[in-house]
Design brief:
With 215 residues, the protein is α+β, with helices and mostly antiparallel strands. 31% of the residues lie in helices and 18% in strands.
Length: 215
Amino acid sequence: MKSLLLLPLAFFSLLSCAQQSSDSTSLDKPSQEELETMQTAYFASGCFWCVEAIFESVDGVSEAVSGYAGGVKPNPNYRIVSSGNSKHAETVKVYYDSSKVSFETLVEVFFNSHDPSTKNAQGPDHGPQYRSIAFYQNQDEQSIIQRKIKEYRAAQTFSRITTEVKELDVFYEAEAYHQDYERLHPNQAYIKAVSIPRLNKFKKKMPWVLKDGEH
């Protein structure tokens, strides 16, 4: 459950990713044809509501889609993933223009927008579905991820790095109500308490990668 620790139990339902909303605000989205011209990258670093919003703030990123990857059971849904039994992690598929932003920069965004030292946890969220994974689709991506980890370890940027470096197998898109959740539900309790502060912290850390209007 995406819940803040030590808060009253009655408040938990307001801080859950499982909570749905009737908000139907429309968003300007790239067409499927536009997305097919883009490169893709996949990252898991906690609540996908948070991760999706972070990557969508980056210049060169056209779209980020919430979903599930890194597990063993086919066709997972949120309930199964939340149980931990499917071994999937909440993952975001990033569509990006490689002429504007490199895969290496996206890896830097990944590491600078979460705490890779916490195993199976991110902030108030705990469980294997919230673990840190940098997925690769080819040897070049694998090499970039491993090099960045080596650099961060050498610089002692983090107390430790628990991030898995894993070849992407299958990405399953999450339920429709999870998509663009932070943008559509800015007043939801978890979004206000966790997602927006996490996004703002990232923006202060890497302002040079942001789209115009995201500063």
